[in-house]
């Protein structure tokens, strides 16, 4: 029995792969690398810019993101001061650069007040030279932290996409994942977002919560469509180490695959196009223009504690934690850093040629599919010779080859969270398995 065959006999929900290698494969660099050396060989004509705001009003029971709940204002102010020092030092290292996309995530960027939001946009525009009004800009928001004034600021500063994690329109379901959310507040926030005129609204829903059924999931989907979102993401619930649900360690029936199929089929019947296992796009969604960010590509400048940056040879970030004390300590250390210290890259992953090829193959496969000619042009090799294991996908009905490439079938798409981890290199798999969660 092959490893894939063994995994296919187990849960299809192994891990969500939105980047490769996973952050649990990052380790300290000894000695640290200079920022200039890390970016020396990277093109600077169409970089992607990301600011991380590691604060939320609360931590949901399923969340393992790098964020601290309910920070005091002096902590936020100290963080923004360090973010400015880091941005200025990164600008010094990058030199002349232009940016094709901008995103603010977290955490919840709209936990910041109006002055804080303007501060982040000023760093992007005035320090780094990005032009938010002429490139796609996406911002994560939450029902508890948006108001009319903040939304006006986001729109005036160039934001054309807002994303909100609703998770469910049934209060008992979100309460089961320790999210004390009122549906009336969600609906009021969505009405406010729509009235502000953002071209793209994305809503996230979760399936697999305690007490959820296909009927209740369809109810949330129908409620979602009342707001005509241009994008919808459907996320399976994961119970991760050190989260509230992870500590609870509840044994529950795994209905996620049937719930996924219920949601997928419904959205397809409503005219949405499936882009990936998680993402669905409406017919009325605008063409954002410019290059679409794809994780296969490099040139990601991540700023802030918890943000990741990608160059061809090096991925790096601050250290990662989930536990509240450890997160607070990492944020405090970040906030105390000097401008000079931001010139050192101390934690991340070096990608050799094999890992670069694997990253491109894997993330292409989980999106639009592996283009044989694109792989050949980039690496001077054939993807099926570099990764013959891909032929197993076809043998199991999970992939389909044609003259141009290899793409996942519907059965393969719904097993993306199994196929991704299956394709990890032995080295990355070993590092991730040795990672000590904290």
From TrEMBL:
PROSITE patterns: RADICAL_SAM
Keyword set includes Kinase: no
InterPro entries: Aldolase_TIM, Coproporphyrinogen-III_oxidase, Elp3/MiaA/NifB-like_rSAM, HemN_C, rSAM, rSAM_sf
Any single GO BP term: porphyrin-containing compound biosynthetic process
Single GO cellular component term: cytoplasm
Keywords of the record: Iron, Iron-sulfur, Metal-binding, S-adenosyl-L-methionine
Signal sequence extent: none
GO MF terms held by the record: 4 iron, 4 sulfur cluster binding; catalytic activity; metal ion binding
Domain of life: Bacteria
PANTHER family noted in UniProt: COPROPORPHYRINIGEN III OXIDASE, RADICAL S-ADENOSYL METHIONINE DOMAIN-CONTAINING PROTEIN 1, MITOCHONDRIAL
Protein name: Coproporphyrinogen III oxidase
Originating species: Myxococcus fulvus
């Amino acid at each position: 029995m092959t490893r894939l065959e063994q995994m296919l006999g187990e849960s299809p929900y192994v891990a969500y792969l939105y980047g490769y290698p996973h952050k649990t494969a990052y380790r300290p660099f000894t000695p640290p690398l200079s920022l200039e050396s890390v970016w020396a060989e990277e093109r600077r004509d169409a970089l992607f810019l990301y600011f991380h705001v590691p604060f939320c009003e609360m931590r949901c029971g399923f969340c393992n993101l790098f964020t601290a709940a309910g920070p005091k204002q002096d902590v936020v102010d100290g963080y923004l001061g360090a973010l400015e020092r880091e941005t200025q030092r990164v600008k010094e290292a990058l030199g002349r650069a232009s940016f094709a996309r901008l995103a603010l995530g977290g955490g919840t960027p709209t936990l910041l007040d109006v002055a804080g939001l303007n501060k982040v946009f000023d760093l992007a525009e005035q320090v780094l030279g990005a032009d938010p009004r002429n490139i796609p800009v996406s911002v994560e928001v939450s029902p508890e932290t948006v108001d009319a004034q903040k939304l006006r600021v986001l729109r005036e500063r160039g934001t054309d996409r807002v994303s909100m994690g609703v998770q469910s329109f049934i209060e008992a379901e979100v309460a089961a994942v320790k999210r004390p959310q009122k549906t009336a507040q969600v609906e009021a926030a969505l009405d406010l977002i729509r009235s502000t005129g953002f071209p793209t609204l994305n809503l996230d829903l979760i399936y697999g919560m305690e007490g959820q059924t296909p009927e209740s999931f369809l109810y949330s989907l129908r409620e979602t469509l009342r707001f005509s979102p241009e994008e919808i993401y459907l996320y399976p619930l994961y119970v991760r180490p050190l989260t509230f649900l992870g500590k609870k360690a509840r044994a529950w029936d795994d209905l996620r695959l049937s719930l996924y199929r219920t949601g997928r089929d419904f959205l397809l019947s409503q005219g949405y196009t499936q882009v990936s296992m998680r993402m669905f796009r409406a017919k009325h969604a605008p063409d954002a223009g410019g290059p679409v960010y794809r994780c296969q590509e490099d040139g990601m400048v991540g700023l802030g504690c918890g943000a990741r940056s990608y160059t061809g040879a090096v991925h790096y970030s601050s250290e990662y934690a989930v536990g509240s004390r450890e997160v607070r300590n990492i944020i405090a250390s970040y906030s105390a850093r000097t401008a000079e210290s931001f010139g050192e890259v101390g934690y991340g992953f070096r990608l050799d040629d094999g890992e670069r090829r694997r990253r491109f193959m894997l993330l292409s496969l989980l999106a639009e599919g592996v283009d044989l000619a694109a792989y050949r042009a980039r690496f001077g090799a054939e993807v099926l010779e570099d990764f013959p294991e891909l032929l197993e996908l076809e043998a199991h009905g999970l992939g389909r080859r044609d003259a141009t490439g290899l793409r996942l079938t519907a059965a393969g798409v719904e097993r993306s969270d199994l196929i991704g981890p299956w394709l990890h290199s032995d080295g990355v798999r070993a590092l991730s398995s040795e990672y000590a969660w904290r």
